[in-house]
Design goal:
With 972 residues, this protein is α/β, with parallel strands linked by helices. Helices cover 42% and strands 16% of the residues. It is built from 37 helices and 29 strands. The protein has a seven-stranded mixed sheet. The chain has a six-stranded mixed sheet with strand order 6-7-8-9-11-10, sandwiched between helices. The chain has a five-stranded parallel sheet with strand order 2-1-3-4-5, covered by helices on one side. Strand 19 (557-561) and strand 20 form a beta hairpin. Helix 3 (119-133) packs antiparallel against helix 4. The protein is elongated.
Length: 972
């Protein structure tokens, strides 16, 4: 365990530097050694989950590998954590500080103490240097950039303190480029007020009027001064913070005469009243600029001002306050924000079992309910970790849960929810209705909604996007799809809304919509998810919605997959929809009981449903229907990855759970022209190097992900136009080991694949003249067939018609043990891959991938056929000998043998295929009967002899053939 220690009473500089070090050293954890500054505490009350914080009491000292101290160089500033510095097994102790005068008594192996305004600057310089040297795009998360920017702002007084340096300014500018939020920085940075403004602040606090409306606090106050006072905007911001008001109108009336600005004006110039009003609002939907416009004011929606004269100051201020109240929208309620259904346990559940449940579902806490399903308490991951640390895995959770709870009702408003979380430092609030637990609102839910509100305010481009940064794409969607399809989606959304559900379009369709450059998007594959938010009784919501739609669209076909509570509506060559597949599922989460297993699914929320997806670019959703129709849900920064053109996985164990995601990562990267993000590539290589897949196959006897699901992914890649690039990328990742541990794309295997491709391309060029293969009715397409139960994000579920095939149906093989077959090109490529394995593995691997029986048999007998031809081909001196030998082998076997044979053998096989295979006897069976021969087994011998004579050049015309028969087979 690598730890980063913040000093006691940690400030933003210590926290920002610690977060930056965790970016430099992935996997490190931050320890607040002894509390934090009140402003930092308030910040972490909302944003704690964004950073890798760990409780000091949860640390096992024996597992510490290294310690880094930030913004301090003395042991006395580390509290009890200073004892860890004496551990004998530490690999490294590092110190990063900017206090040159401080005495250091820490036995550091690495020290960097320099004269800059903030310790965070030292870390930012390292990050900036790493980004400049990186070959791949580097970008901080907005949450990381923001807290580091706060560290520099606070410790340098926003670059105004004496110790601030140009290095701090450069670091701050880079963090702004990386997405630091000015809105959040302004919320937590405290600028100093002049003495005059401090006096006015006291007066404002004394005379402030306020009112609560829809859960928001609106305040206004009028101050009177002798003259104009500069800095009123800072006073308004401070007043807003001190009173925790959501919207404020600060008025200042003062005397003004023209000679105040012009000394040439006569002293007796008239004096008038001037009124200045500063407006600040944190309420989404309000627009102060529009409010002030009639008085000649303006600004931004959340910050504006006006200056006017000769009006009644108090009347004007009260009038504006009343108009501001009318702008305030009804804020979201707990019912709209909550996650449902809630994962709950009984008080008697053991701590160990609770830990397993947390691990399974990825939650940070669990609700505890009694036998009557009434809420009894909540236990957090921190509580469970501490209990496990002390060896109480067997103890019931009732001894560790929090039972004095703050709860809310479904109609509790967002401002009240936010206030409860900040006031009591609560990470989750249970939602109770009639005493029953119906949902839970977490910090993440609140943060998501707050940032959605900021994103809807188009006046700023620097808002945070930790969780969702939704933008309305309704107009974009509506403009790019057909009117008929938009009507279908609208009808589906209305049906869902009438049942109390929320409907989303998710996955690949959203990704392709955002990537599309054409005005028209031809969607043939749409995935819809229904979020019931009403508990487990709605697990079949997807099927119910699909059934209702099918009644309105009887021309569609309804397929129901009961095991996964999903349904699909299919149109085939429809006049309005063409060939369209609409998959409708209930929002669900999934759990893999062991690596490479089939997932177990349960009903859940839309966020959990998106979290189970493969990559961030496929974990996007668009809300259909009110409220907030058309909003984009992006919980995992998929938009940033689309902009960066990179494939990023959602969690570190994704490839351990499902190795087919390795193949999907490669397929999306090649198809979309993206790069696999470096950390994601690292997860791929670690999963392959771990050997977990083969160990699981040994322990469980099978790994479903490496069977039909792997075959499907191989099919998608090997039938695509870009299969060569994708296969080379898989080879570089050593991902072919998923097929078999010994399979690697070396030079020889690549040579065989290229020879096969030359053969397949050659057969197309010669099509119609050599008649080696059946006519190809359709070009090779990237069609994505539906794999039931396992979600495939997005490249399409086009029907697989008329694929390019390799066939032996054009010529007879009377002695061949194989039936006449047609084999798609992708399958031939896959068989070449498998054939490269040692003979004893080929049949087993083909069976494991559940290839057709004839394919398995071909691979099993391939080695014997290769040996037979190696022995007999050199003996073939005449064309007839070559034809009579090779016609006993089906075409795919001949090609596979040729690929693995020396050039001389390949030349003979190719000569047979391109020159001799189409030669026919000069006479046929009807000719023999016309000559008076009786049909029977002898016909075959006669025709074979005629063919051999013609191949060897012993026969010329038909007369010569008849003469040949008369000599060889005289009639009685």
């Amino acid at each position: 365990m690598d730890l980063v220690l913040c000093h006691t009473t940690a400030d933003f500089d210590a926290l920002g530097a610690a977060v930056g070090l965790c970016v430099l050293r992935p996997g490190s954890r931050i320890v607040l050694t002894g509390g934090c500054h009140p402003t930092v505490r308030d910040f972490l009350a909302l944003h704690r989950d964004e950073y890798p914080l760990i409780e000091r009491r949860s640390v096992n000292p024996q597992k510490i590998r290294s310690i880094t101290i930030v913004d301090a160089s003395g042991r006395d500033r580390l509290g009890k954590a200073a004892e860890w510095l004496d551990l004998p097994h530490l690999n490294e102790i590092a110190v990063f500080d900017h206090h040159l005068e401080a005495h250091s008594d820490i036995p550091a192996t690495v020290t960097q103490i320099e004269a800059v305004g903030a310790s965070t600057t030292l870390i930012v310089e390292k990050l900036k240097n790493q980004a400049e040297k990186s070959d791949t795009p580097f970008r901080l998360l907005p949450s990381e950039a923001t807290v580091m920017a706060l560290g520099i702002h606070v410790d340098t007084g926003s670059l105004t303190f004496e110790g601030a340096t140009a290095r701090d300014a450069i670091a701050l500018a880079w963090l702004m480029e990386q997405g630091a939020s000015l809105g959040v920085i302004a919320e937590y940075v405290e600028p100093a007020l002049s003495p005059q403004l401090q006096d006015l602040l006291r007066e404002a606090l004394k005379n402030l009027r306020s009112e609560i409306l829809h859960g928001y606090s609106v305040a206004w106050v009028l101050l009177s001064t002798e003259a104009y006072v500069p800095g009123l905007s800072s006073l308004a911001s401070r007043l807003l913070d001190l009173t925790e008001t959501d919207a404020l109108l600060l008025g200042n009336v003062y005397k003004f005469s023209e000679n105040d600005n012009n000394r040439n004006i006569a002293p007796e110039s008239p004096v008038s009243n001037r009124l200045t009003i500063i407006g600040r609002s944190r309420i989404e939907g309000t627009n102060l600029s529009e409010l002030f416009k009639p008085f000649g004011g303006g600004g931004h929606a959340r910050a504006a001002s006006l200056a006017t004269r000769d009006v009644d100051p108090l009347l004007t201020l009260n009038q504006l306050a009343d108009e501001l109240k009318t702008q305030i929208p009804h804020p979201p309620t707990a019912r709209e924000l909550m996650s449902s259904p809630v994962r709950s346990i009984r008080p008697e559940t053991s701590v160990g079992e609770a830990h397993r449940i947390l691990l399974r579902y990825g939650h940070s806490g669990l609700s505890v309910v009694d036998a009557d399903d009434r809420l009894a308490g909540i236990i957090s991951r921190r509580d469970i970790d501490i209990a496990l640390h002390h060896g109480f895995s067997h103890a019931p959770v009732k001894g560790y849960m929090t039972w004095q709870l703050k709860t809310i009702a479904p109609d509790t408003l967002l401002p009240e929810i936010e206030s409860l979380m900040v006031t009591y430092d609560i990470g989750r609030l249970p939602v109770l209705e009639n005493g029953q637990l119906v949902g839970i609102v977490t910090r993440t839910d609140v943060l998501r909604e707050l940032h959605q509100q900021k994103a809807r305010d188009r006046g700023s481009n620097t808002e945070l996007s930790y969780c969702a940064a939704p933008e309305s794409v309704e107009q974009l969607l509506r403009s790019r799809i057909s009117p008929e399809l938009w009507q279908l989606l609208s009808i589906a959304a209305n049906i869902a809304q009438n049942r109390g559900w929320q409907l989303y379009i998710v996955g690949g369709a959203v990704r392709d919509l955002l990537l599309a450059t054409d005005d028209t998007l031809a969607l043939t594959d749409i995935d819809l998810v229904v979020d019931g938010k009403c508990g487990s009784d709605d697990s079949g919501a997807g099927v119910e919605l699909a059934s209702s739609l099918q009644k309105l669209y009887p021309e569609s076909r309804l397929d129901v997959h009961g095991q996964f509570q999903t349904a699909a509506l299919l149109w085939h060559k429809d006049s309005a929809f063409g060939s369209l597949w609409v998959d409708i599922a209930t929002a669900r989460t999934e759990f893999y009981p062991y690596p490479a297993a089939n997932p177990e699914v349960e009903a859940s929320s839309i966020r959990q449903d998106l979290y189970r997806r493969d990559f961030t670019i496929n974990a996007l959703a668009v809300r259909l229907g009110v409220p907030r129709s058309g909003e984009l849900l992006d919980f995992f920064c998929g938009l940033l990855d689309l902009e960066a053109k990179q494939i990023r996985v959602l969690h570190a164990n994704s490839f351990i759970e499902d190795p087919t995601r390795i193949y999907r990562a490669v397929r999306f990267a090649v198809r979309l022209g993206f790069e696999i993000e470096p950390q994601t590539e690292g997860y791929i290589r670690n999963a392959l190097a771990s050997g977990i897949y083969y160990r699981i196959q040994g322990e469980n006897g099978r790994a479903p992900a490496l069977e039909t699901r792997l075959k499907s992914e191989l099919k998608y890649i090997l039938q695509a136009p870009y299969w060569k690039v994708a296969l080379q990328m898989l080879g570089d990742l050593q991902a072919l080991r998923c097929i078999h541990p010994s399979l690697e794309l070396d030079r020889e295997l690549w040579r065989q694949l290229r020879l096969l491709d030359r053969c397949l391309n050659g057969r197309r060029k010669k099509e119609g003249t050599t008649r080696i293969l059946t006519r190809i009715h359709g070009l090779m397409i990237e069609g994505e067939s539906r794999v039931r139960g396992k979600k495939e994000e997005g490249i399409g579920k086009k029907e697989e018609k008329e694929k390019a095939t390799i066939s032996n149906a054009q010529f007879p093989m009377p002695n061949s043990p194989f039936p006449i077959i047609n084999i798609p090109d992708w399958q031939m490529r896959l068989e070449v891959l498998i054939a490269y394995l040692a003979p004893e593995y080929r049949g087993k691997v083909a069976a494991n991938l559940q290839l057709p029986a004839d394919s398995i048999k071909r691979l099993e007998v391939l080695e014997a056929g290769k040996k037979q031809l190696a022995e007999n081909l050199p003996k073939c001196e005449l064309p007839s000998q070559l034809v009579l030998l090779l016609r006993n082998y089906e075409l795919p076997v001949l090609i596979a043998i040729a690929l693995q044979s020396p050039r001389s053998a390949r030349r003979q096989i190719w000569e047979y295929l391109t020159k001799w295979v189409n030669v026919e006897p000069p006479l046929n069976g009807n000719d023999l009967k016309a000559l008076g021969y009786k049909p029977g087994p002898g016909f075959k011998r006669m025709l074979d002899d005629l063919l051999a004579a013609k191949l060897d050049g012993d026969l010329g015309d038909r007369a010569a053939a008849i003469s040949f028969l008369a000599q060889r087979y005289p009639q009685a």
